[in-house]
Amino acid sequence: MKLDKYKGVIPAFYACYDDEGNVSVEGTKQLVEFLIEKGVKGLYVGGSSGECIYLSVEERKQTLEAVMKVAKGRITIIAHVACNNTKDSCELARHAESLGVDAIATIPPIYFKLPERAIAKYWNDISAAAPNTDYIIYNIPQLAGVALTPSLFEEMLKNPKVIGVKNSSMPIQDIQMFRRQAKMNGREIIVFNGPDEQFVGGRLIGAEGGIGGTYGVMPELFVKLDEMIKNGEFENAGKLQDDINEVIYTMCSAKGNMYAVAKAALKLRAGLELGGVREPLLNLADGDEKIVGKTASLVEEAVQKWIK
Asked: Which of 17, 138, 215, 259 is catalytic?
């Protein structure tokens, strides 16, 4: 099936920096290889976890190029290409298609409250810039300030390149709603679970894949969780989800940004040098080292517990 390459665990890729705060090509390549070795289905590059709104167009191109050099067709690559204007977004879409990504994805434009017809035009213009590439809508209303409504989705389903929704809204019933609406339009789509804390719930209600910002810290745990769900091991899946959520709650308890914690934990777990986060995101503060250490320890304990 065409959509099979999207079904599974797809970590939202982290922006990697050197000591000067510039994009680190070497760190990017090392992170790609680490995640491939852990058995992930693919990578979602340049989204929220990739700090996309704080990187320049050239930096985002640089990151995707480094990812593609390592991936080499071994895994599925989804490139998030949205900028807060159509011109730059289309440039990133063309660039992503030239590199051979499997799909591009976009959030809606932020700040100005645009009518749905303007959002649909923005998305369709970006899709047209990469006419041979699958298109995924990224629904994250709590950050974008714009929700993928049934009427907007109805309009986007007219675009044959739209094959899925990355659904990061909190109500898991939205996953079921998008699948139902697509079916009523004679369309087969894939819906990705967004909120990592409800991976099990999202998968059970109809998501066939997941894209998440904490997967990168503990990829093998999410791969195992996905395997449990596929095998009908629902009781154990619930218990593993609980252990995963403990890691997430710990990461979120730091004063610094969660992605700064994630990268520091990966340094402890795998020796990866990924840098911090780009301001105005907050880097680690005094006392956060303990949280980083606890995060890494909790992951290792869960790995020993669940992965034979």
From this structure: 138
Q: Identify which of 47, 13, 40, 41 has the alpha carbon closest to the alpha carbon of residue 29.
A: 13
Q: Residue 209: how many CA atoms within 13 Å on its side-chain side?
A: 27
Q: Which of 228, 169, 163 is nearest to 198 (CA)?
A: 169
Tell me how far CA of residue 175 lies from CA of 180, 210, 230, 278, 284, in angstroms: 9, 11, 18, 32, 34
3-state secondary structure at position 193? strand
Active site residue 166: yes
Residues 6 or more apart whose Cβ sits within 8 Å of residue 134 = 102, 103, 104, 161, 163, 164
- Among residues 38, 166, 224, 263, the one annotated as catalytic is 166
**pLDDT per position as a tens digit, 258-280:** 999 999 999 999 999 999 999 99
Cα dihedral across residues 251, 167, 281, 25: positive or negative: positive
Buried b (16+ CB within 10 A) or exposed e, 266-290: bebbeebbbbbbbeeeebbeeebee
**Average pLDDT in the 236-265 region?**
98
Backbone angles phi, psi at 169, to 5 degrees: -70, 150
For 212, the 3-state DSSP assignment is strand
pLDDT of the residue at 1: 62
How far, in Å, are 17, 101, 196, 246, 247 from residue 291 at the CA level?
21, 36, 19, 12, 10
Query: Distance from first CA to last CA of the chain, Å, rounded?
Result: 31
**Which residues, in sequence order, are CB contacts of 185 under 8 Å at separation 6+?**
154, 157
Q: Tens digits of per-residue pLDDT, 42-79?
A: 999 999 999 999 999 999 999 999 999 999 999 999 99
Backbone angles phi, psi at 6, to 5 degrees: -100, -5
Residue 259 Cα to chain centre, angstroms = 13
What is the number of other CB atoms lying within 10 angstroms of the CB of residue 150? 12
State pTM to two decimals: 0.97
